[in-house]
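Troubleshooting entry. The earlier prediction with cobalt (II) ion gave an output that would not parse, so I re-checked the input for stray whitespace and re-submitted. Clean input:
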Amino acid sequence: MTNCDDKTFQLGAMNHVGVAVPDIEAAIAFYRDVMGAANITEPEILAPQGVKYAFVNLPTGQVELIEPYGDTSPILKFLDRNPKGGQHHMCFEVEDIHAAKDIMETRGMRVLGEPRIGAHGTPVVFLHPGDAGGVLIELMETHKAH
Ligand code: CO
C-alpha cells in the first residue's frame, strides 16, 4: 500500500451493519418479537441497488435488513452462499464521499464503483472485502443539515 498524503481524513461514526435476509418481513418479525426492537422502519425499495430494505433503529446505530430486489440484485449471490442470510457489510460515515473515495484509492483500496445514493439518501461507496480483512465496507456521507 502506498502512503496517503491526506492526514486529515478520519473515519466517522459506525452507522449500520447490513444483514442480508431471504424474507424481510420474517426478519422484521424476528427483530421485533424476539429481539425486542421497538423501532423498525417499513420496508422500502431501492431499485438501482437491487434491494428492499428496512432499518432496525437502536439507541446507537442501526441494523439494515436487505432483501434482494430484482433478478440482478447483488444480494442474490450472497444468499446463494448463505441461504439463511447473514452479516453482509458494515457502514461507516465520512464527511465527504468523493474525498474518501480518492483517499481510499490512494491507500491501495479497491473502491467498487462511483458514489451513488444509498438507503439513507446520501452517497455511498463500497470497498472490496479482499482489501479489508474480508469485510465488505460501506462508506456513507454523513447527513448534512440543510
Ligand atoms: Co448499508
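This one parsed fine. The mean pLDDT is 93.
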